[in-house]
Amino acid sequence: MSGHIPVMLDEVLEALAPTDGEVYADGTFGGGGYAMAILGAANCKLVGIDRDVTAIERAEHMAEKEPRLVPALGRFGRLDALAEAAGFAMIDGVVLDLGVSSFQIDQAERGFSFMRDGPLDMRMGGAGPRAADLVNRLDERVLADIIFRLGEERKARRVARQIVARRKERPFETTADLAETVEGALGGRRGARTHPATKTFQALRMYLNDELGELARALAAAERILRVGGRLVIVTFHSLEDRLVKAFLRERGGQMAGGSRHAPAKAAKAAPSFHVASRKAGIVSLEEAQTNPRARSAKLRSAVRTDAPAWGGAAWAGFDLPPVEEMEGSE
C-alpha cells in the first residue's frame, strides 16, 4: 500500500478548528488522513464520504476501531443528504480535498496515471463509461473541447486529431497506449518537466467524473447544511477548481465583482451566507512541497457560515460540455 500524505494538514486543522461535541464531514475520505486527524484533535464525530467503494471499505475498517467515524458511500455533491441520512441534520464543518487520491493514482488497474500502465479506466466510482470509451467514441471536436477547457492544453486540436486517427487503426485499451499517442502528437518530451500527456489525462479524468460539477454541487450542499459558525475548508490542486471555489466564496461572501468607474459593482443577490476572512488562498510551505511533490500546486480556501439563509442552487460549474451520460453506449 502506498503512503497517503494529507496535504496542508496543519493549515486545514487550523481553519476547521475541531471542537469537542461537534460534527464534521470529510467529503473526500480517500485514505482517511484528514478524517483521523480531525477525530484526533477533538472529541467530535465525523461523516466520511467517498464515491469510491474501496475508500469506504477502508473507512469501515477504521470505524471498527474508531466508532466516532461514520462512513457514507456517495458523491460529495450530496454531502448534505448523506450527512442527514447518517443522522446529522446540521454539521459544524466541511472539508474537501479535491482531485484524485494517492491510492487511486498508485493502483495501475484504476487507470488514472500513465506512469503505471493499466486499463484506461479513470472512474472514481467504478460505474459508467470508462476513459477508453471517451477516446474511442467521442467526436473529434468534443474531444478537443474537453482537452482544451479542462486540461488547458493549447494544442488540444492536434491531440484530438491524432487520437481519432489512431483509434481508426485499433481502439485504445491502456494508459500507456494513450500516453504514447499524445506524446507523439505533441512532438515528444524534449526535456519537459512534465509528461506531454499530463494535461490530456487530467482533462479526461475531470470530465469523466464531472469533477467541477460535483464541486459546484458540494459547495451549495455545504452552504445548506452548515450551522451558523460552521467552517468550510477546501484544498484545491487545479486552477479551474480554485477559480470555482474563489468565485463561489466571493459571491456568497458578498464580495461582488466591479466597483470601478468602468465596471460598477454588482448588487448582491442576497445577504452573505459566508464570512471570508481572507481573499488570498493559502499555499503549501516550501518544506512540504519538497517532501511531498504532489502537494506543490495545492491551495487552501476557507469560510465561516453566517446566519443568512442559503442562497439555493449550485455554484457555476464552469463549462458547457455535453454530459458524459449522453455518450452513445453509456452504461
What tags apply to this protein structure?
39% helix, Rossmann fold, alpha/beta, 13 helices, DNA polymerase, domain 1, 331 residues
Write the layout of secondary structure elements.
Layout: H1 9-16, E1 23-26, H2 33-41, E2 45-50, H3 53-63, E3 69-73, H4 79-85, E4 91-97, H5 102-106, H6 131-137, H7 140-151, H8 156-167, H9 175-185, H10 198-208, H11 211-225, E5 226-236, H12 239-252, E6 274-275, E7 282-283, H13 286-291, E8 299-305
Parallel strand pairs: 1-2, 1-4, 2-3, 4-5
Antiparallel strand pairs: 5-8, 6-8, 7-8
Number of structural units classed as domains:
2
Described by strand count, sense and barrel closure, the largest sheet is: 8 strands, mixed
What name does CATH use for the topology of the largest domain? Rossmann fold
CATH architecture type of the largest domain: 3-Layer(aba) Sandwich
Q: Report the uncertain regions.
A: 103-112
Task: Write down the Rg.
Answer: 20 Å
- CATH H-level superfamily title of the largest domain: Vaccinia Virus protein VP39
Q: Give the C-level CATH assignment of the largest domain.
A: Alpha Beta
Cα(first) to Cα(last) distance is 31 Å
Fraction of residues in helices?
25-40%
Query: Beta fraction of the residues?
Result: 5-15%
- Continuous helix count: 13
Q: Structural class given helices, strands, pairing?
A: alpha/beta
Strand segment tally: 8
- The outline comes out as globular
What is the averaged pLDDT score?
A: 87
